[in-house]
Write a structure and sequence with these properties.
By secondary structure, the chain is α+β, with helices and mostly antiparallel strands. Helix content is 27%, strand content 27%. The chain contains 7 helices and 18 strands. The chain has a 5-stranded antiparallel β-sheet with strand order 6-7-13-9-10. The longest helix is centred in the last third of the chain and has 19 residues, at 269-287. The protein is globular and about 55 Å long.
C-alpha cells in the first residue's frame, strides 16, 4: 500500500485531497483519529479516477457522508475516506418525483418536498446525514422507512460504470438495504405524493417534536447504537437493566434515550466501545437478548 504515491496522483484528479485528516471533524460523534487520505470527488470523472488510483496503489477506501451512524477508531483509518462533493449535491423535482445526488443533505430534500406540497417524507424530519447514507441504511423507523419511497438508485460500480437499480429490486430491511450489485450510491429518485400542505406541515412538526423530546439532539452522538430486537426496543431493554446515565470516560448512555451514547466533551472511541460492550453484557445477562450494533465501525476497533 502506498498512501503517499496515491496522494500525489490524486492531486490531479480529485477536488480536494488531504493527508492525515482528523475524522473527528467529519463525524456527528466528534470522535475519531485521522484518515491516511481524505479525498473529495466533485463529479463522476474524479470519482472513477480516484477509485482506480486507490485500487492501483492498493489503498483501502470507504465512502463517508456526513458521518452520522459511524464510530471511528481513535487510531483512525489507514486507508482513504472518499466524500462526494459538489457535483453530487444536486436535486431536481419533476411532478411528484425528486431526483437527488447522494451527497445532498437529507434535510434539504425533506424541506424541498414540503415546499412543493409533496407527502411521503414526513417521517424523515430530523434524521441527519446525506441522502446516500440514508438510502444505504434505509433510514426511518420500523413502521416507515426511506426504501418505501425510493423509485430507483444509481450506483457507480468500479470497473463497470453507472448501474441503475429499481427500488423494488432492492432488498429493504430494518436499518439496512441490500443491493443486487456492489457499488457507490451516487443518486436516488424518490417517488412521493401530492399532499395537503397543512396536513404535511402538521405531520412534520409532530415528527420533529417527537425526536426532540425523545432523542439527545443537543449532544454529539451517532444516532441509535443498537438495532431494536424483534418485538421490543433496545432503549427499553437498556433502561430497564439500569444502565441509563452510565458513563465511561467522556462517553455516556443518554439520559434522554438509552439507545443513544453521547459525547460529553472528550469521549474517545475506546470509551464508547467500553459502554457498548457493557450494555451488551448486562442486557444479555438481564434479559437474555443479544443486542446487535446498528452503527458502522471504521478503523481498528475491537468487534463488539
Amino acid at each position: 500500500m502506498s498512501v503517499r504515491s496515491a496522494y500525489d496522483r490524486l492531486l490531479s484528479v480529485a477536488g480536494e485531497v488531504r493527508l492525515e485528516e482528523p475524522l473527528s471533524k467529519h463525524t456527528t460523534f466528534r470522535i475519531g483519529g485521522p484518515a491516511a487520505l481524505y479525498v473529495e470527488c466533485d463529479d463522476m470523472e474524479s470519482l472513477s479516477s480516484a477509485v482506480a488510483i486507490l485500487k492501483d496503489e492498493a489503498v483501502d477506501w470507504i465512502v463517508l457522508g456526513k458521518g452520522s451512524n459511524v464510530l471511528v477508531s481513535d487510531a483512525g483509518f489507514e486507508g482513504a475516506v472518499i466524500v462526494l462533493g459538489s457535483g453530487f449535491r444536486h436535486y431536481s423535482v419533476d411532478g411528484t418525483q425528486i431526483v437527488a445526488g447522494a451527497g445532498v443533505v437529507l434535510a434539504v430534500v425533506v424541506q424541498e418536498s414540503f415546499r412543493r406540497g409533496l407527502s411521503g417524507l414526513e417521517f424523515a424530519v430530523g434524521i441527519p446525514g446525506t441522502l446516500g447514507g440514508a438510502v444505504f441504511m434505509n433510514a426511518g423507523s420500523r413502521e416507515t422507512w426511506l426504501g418505501s419511497v425510493v423509485g430507483a438508485v444509481t450506483l457507480f460500480v468500479p470497473g463497470e460504470g453507472l448501474v441503475s437499480v429499481r427500488g423494488d429490486r432492492i432488498d429493504w430491511r430494518y436499518r439496512t438495504s441490500i443491493f443486487p450489485v456492489d457499488g457507490i450510491i451516487v443518486e436516488a429518485s424518490l417517488v412521493l405524493e401530492q399532499g395537503d400542505v397543512e396536513v404535511t406541515r402538521a405531520a412534520m412538526e409532530k415528527s420533529y417534536e417527537r425526536r426532540k423530546q425523545t432523542q439527545p439532539l443537543g449532544s454529539p452522538n451517532a444516532g441509535s447504537i443498537f438495532v431494536n430486537p424483534p418485538g421490543d426496543s433496545a432503549g427499553r431493554l437498556i433502561e430497564s437493566a439500569g444502565l441509563k446515565g452510565l458513563t465511561y470516560g467522556g462517553a455516556m448512555i443518554s439520559e434522554v434515550h438509552a439507545n443513544f451514547i453521547v459525547n460529553t466533551g472528550a469521549a474517545t472511541a475506546a470509551n464508547v466501545m467500553a459502554l457498548i460492550d457493557r450494555v451488551r453484557e448486562v442486557v444479555r445477562d438481564t434479559h437474555g437478548v443479544e443486542l446487535t450494533p446498528e452503527i458502522r465501525f471504521i478503523g481498528r476497533l475491537d468487534s463488539p
